[in-house]
Amino acid sequence: MSFLSLLTGSFSQGAAENPTVAMIEAAFRHHGIDARYVNCEVPPEGLADAVRGARAMGWAGFNCSIPHKVAVVEHLDGLAESAAVIGAVNCAVLRDGRLMGENTDGQGFMASLRTVVDPEGKRLVVFGAGGAARAIAVEAALAGAGPITVVNRDRGRGAELVALLRERTPADVELVAWDGAYGVSAQADVVVNATSIGLFPDVGARLPLDPDSLLPGMIVADVIPNPPRTALIADAEARGATVLDGLGMLVNQGVISIRHWTGLDADPAVKRRTVEELFGLPDRAG
Ligand code: NDP
User: I need a labelling partner for 115 at 20 to 30 A (CA). Which of 56, 196, 219, 265 fits?
Assistant: First the structure.
């Protein structure tokens, strides 16, 4: 019998609002893994020491959230392919004594997307060009999706993402500067809101988008986890589109982190139930 648990956790500021600890520990309990996930409030000036501490204590790895996703890179020993392209890390993993950086934001989204479609050759419209949009667009492009249309309010930020995708991935990409209600092309297969529009507390906020351009046969995904049922999800569902909410991305990120740290394929349904209970949502599949 061993009394030494496997240690994991998270370094962020605003850690008290992050539900990941509840989700990951529920999965550890469900699968009988003797592991802990320690949710740590770490200011920017404490990040280097936090990473040194994790190394000294033999942590299997840790998540990084706001504001450390880019800053943590210099404290790691190397990066996985997509994390290197995205330029940000949200999951560090100890492999053969080296702390390697992964980015599970886009991977979590892709796992959620793959529950309804194979992304290869699919036409994507991505709203936003921030961290979440970058991660999603890079993973989708590396998985063979395309053409990809990036729609962003700030043209400069949108152009940076488009340049990155053209330089580092094989995808065919175009930029649309978002100005007024956007009409989605009838040829689009997957439409993704990767902006922060709709995030609590601004829960009724709508994307500047013609909802009637969302058609049955399209897949409409939202990254917003809180609340998961956004105005976009409701509008898309009302028009017969297949919808994916932000909890799917969140839950699958947890599944991928656990796989990185323990090698175990955790059951996403356990995590989904845990976060649904946290958000006071009715029990439903997805
Ligand atoms: P960033 O701040 O990096 O980017 C925000 C993006 O939203 C930018 O493209 C910005 O456009 C756009 N945006 C914000 N407000 C508006 C608006 N009123 N009109 C048009 N565009 C707008 O944030 P992140 O990319 O890190 O996060 C985005 C969202 O993704 C957050 O709500 C976060 O909660 C969610 N997220 C969800 C995850 C999950 O697992 N479900 C994981 C990670 C993030 P502009 O460039 O013009 O300013």
Answer: 196
155 ligand 1 Cβ < 6 A: no
Return the closest-CA partner of residue 125 out of 216, 199, 197, 186. 186
Ligand 1: does its nearest atom lie under 6 Å from the Cβ of 188? no
Contact present, 100 and 261 (Cβ < 8 Å): no
User: Per-residue confidence at 244, pLDDT binned at 50, 70, 90?
Assistant: very high
Q: Which of 78, 84, 180 is nearest to 139 (CA)?
A: 84
> Percent of the chain having pLDDT more than 70?
98
Which ranges constitute the DSSP H helices of 153-214?
155-168
List, by residue number, the catalytic residues: 69
Task: Return the bridge partners of 100, or none.
Answer: 78, 93
| Token code pair at residue 74 | 């210099």
Secondary structure class of 95 (helix, strand, coil): strand
What is the band of 286 on the pLDDT scale with cuts at 50, 70, 90?
very low
Closest residue by Cα to atom 19, ligand 1, is: 153
Atom of ligand 1 nearest to the CA of 66: 26
* 199 Cβ closer than 6 Å to some ligand 1 atom: yes
Q: E strands, 112-156, where? A: 124-127, 148-152
pLDDT reported for residue 283: 47
Q: For residue 119, is pLDDT > 90?
A: yes
From the alpha carbon of 157, which atom of ligand 1 is closest?
Answer: 46
Give the neighbor-by-neighbor strand order of the sheet with 219-222: 173-177, 148-152, 124-127, 190-193, 219-222, 242-244
Say yes or no to pLDDT of 284 above 80: no
Distance from Cα 129 to the centre of ligand 1, integer Å = 8
